[in-house]
Automatic annotation (TrEMBL):
Record organism: Microbacterium imperiale
The keyword Metal-binding is assigned to this record: no
Keywords: Membrane, Transmembrane, Transmembrane helix
Top-level taxonomic group: Bacteria
Phylogenetic lineage: Bacteria, Bacillati, Actinomycetota, Actinomycetes, Micrococcales
Record field: transmembrane: 76-100, 106-124, 136-155, 161-178, 207-229, 268-288
InterPro entries, per the entry: VCA0040-like
Protein's UniProt name: DUF368 domain-containing protein
């Protein structure tokens, strides 16, 4: 695997991992933006089925042939660098970014709102063709669901028992699968955001181990369902994702107190400039991605691109 490609995928994972600690911002959204979403979802499905086959077939004495087939289908050349980037970014961002977000909540939410607004073009474009009334209706329902999710009252932090940690992680990890849903906000809504962030900063291995186990179980259960939906109901699913992203913008309204929406303050103009900056950043990323894809397509037409290097 080319070293430059490995660095690029590690950087993509770092971006996904960084936003995963920000309530209201979806790691799945960033995965869409940086172009690794479908690769990660497909590989996660093969990985989950491979692990399940290893356990089931191993216990029954059927050998590991089925597990090896599933595991060999995982795009390890992408998954490993992305995973490493995510882990490193979560560790660094938890210690550095979280205090900054707490100190400048209005500015950070305004910037993130701009990121999400501009990234709406990604699932809209992925739907392909002209939207039909059904897609508009599904997107509206998705927006209502996203708005309802981000309107949940925030509860006080608590010290959850480990089984509850695993259960919450199983649901929160769906944020990596469904753009528009923030895993950190799910944790915040159930009072587990602060304990989880503290566990990362304190290197609480017992807590983190249970959290990762719960996340793996949740991902394994959910990813296969999403894969089927993307294969058989692609337009509807992407329309729903668009709606979820729109609804999630409620959590990123810059002026709020304890989750309650407030009127714009005297810092309206700087906030609007930060929204524009966030949108410009995503626009630049999408433009760069478009240029790269066009060049890759030309190389493909010329017969100079190996299929394994595409995506």
């Amino acid at each position: 695997m080319p070293f430059a490609r490995m660095l690029l995928d590690t950087g993509r994972g770092a971006l996904i991992g960084t936003v995963e600690i920000i309530p209201g911002v979806s790691g799945g959204t960033v995965a869409l933006i940086v172009g690794v979403y479908e690769t990660l979802i497909d590989s996660a499905g093969h990985l989950a089925r491979g692990v399940a086959a290893t356990v089931a077939d191993g216990v029954r004495g059927r050998g590991l042939a089925r597990a090896r087939r599933e595991l060999s289908a995982v795009r390890w050349s992408v998954v490993l660098p992305v995973g490493i980037g995510m882990i490193v970014a979560v560790l660094v961002a938890s210690a550095v970014l979280a205090p900054l977000i707490e100190a400048e909540p209005v500015a950070s939410r305004a910037l993130f709102a701009g990121l999400i607004l501009a990234s709406l073009v990604v699932p809209i474009r992925m739907v392909g063709g002209r939207w039909r009334p059904r897609e508009y209706g599904v997107a509206a329902l998705g927006a209502i669901a996203g708005l309802a999710l981000t309107s949940l009252p925030q509860v006080d932090p608590l010290e959850p028992p480990l089984p509850v940690v695993a259960l919450a992680a199983a649901f929160a990890v769906c944020a990596l699968v469904v753009p528009g849903v923030s895993g950190s906000f799910v944790l915040l809504a159930v009072g587990m955001y602060a304990p989880t962030l503290a566990a990362v900063n304190d290197r609480d291995l017992a807590y983190l181990g249970v959290f990762v186990l719960g996340a793996m179980i949740g991902l394994g259960l959910f990813v296969s369902v999403l894969q089927w939906l993307l294969t058989h109901r692609r337009r509807v699913v992407l329309a729903a994702m668009t709606g979820l992203m729109i609804g999630s913008l409620r959590a990123l309204w810059p002026w709020q107190e304890g989750g309650s929406i407030q009127a714009p303050g005297p810092d309206l103009v700087p906030a609007l400039l930060l929204v524009a900056l966030g949108a410009a950043v995503v626009g630049g990323v999408l433009l760069a991605e478009s240029i790269v894809l066009k060049r890759a397509a030309r190389r493909w037409d010329a017969g100079a691109l190996d299929p394994a290097d595409n995506g």
